């Protein structure tokens, strides 16, 4: 069994440094961190009185919500594609 090579990337999220170890490219990890940072800043802009823990939880809730919407859209498109392929056959 071969092991996937892991890399360590240091990122800044909402003013905090995090060292992330993963098998994805450094640029991918930095992109993910940037999206999290942007979302935290967006939520903080709407409610600047949230403490960091609540801000982090609300960010996670928002990101998972976005993920689930995209997952549902993907499933609908997959079903539509399967339907179109069946009609072609």
UniProtKB/TrEMBL annotation:
Location in the cell: Cytoplasm
Record has Cytoplasm as a keyword: yes
Keyword Cell cycle included in the entry's annotation: yes
CC per GO annotation: cell division site; cell septum; cytosol
Keyword terms: Cell cycle, Cell division, Cytoplasm, Septation
InterPro entries from the UniProt entry: Bac_CellDiv_Activator, Cell_div_ZapA-like, Cell_div_ZapA-like_sf
Origin: domain of life: Bacteria
Listed Pfam families: ZapA
Biological processes annotated in GO: division septum assembly; FtsZ-dependent cytokinesis; septin ring assembly
Main location: cytoplasm
Quaternary structure and partners: Homodimer. Interacts with FtsZ.
Biological role stated in the UniProt entry: Activator of cell division through the inhibition of FtsZ GTPase activity, therefore promoting FtsZ assembly into bundles of protofilaments necessary for the formation of the division Z ring. It is recruited early at mid-cell but it is not essential for cell division.
Name of the protein in question: Cell division protein ZapA
Species in which this protein is naturally found: Fredinandcohnia quinoae
Lineage: Bacteria, Bacillati, Bacillota, Bacilli, Bacillales
The gene coding this protein: zapA
């Amino acid at each position: 069994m071969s092991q996937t090579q892991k890399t360590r990337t240091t990122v800044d999220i909402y003013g905090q440094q995090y060292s992330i170890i993963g098998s994805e490219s450094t640029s991918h990890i930095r992109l993910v961190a940037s999206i999290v940072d942007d979302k935290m800043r967006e939520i903080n802009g709407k409610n600047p009185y949230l403490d960091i823990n609540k801000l982090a939880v609300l960010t996670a809730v928002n990101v998972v919500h976005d993920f689930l919407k995209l997952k549902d859209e993907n499933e609908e498109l997959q079903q539509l594609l399967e339907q179109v392929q069946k009609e072609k056959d």
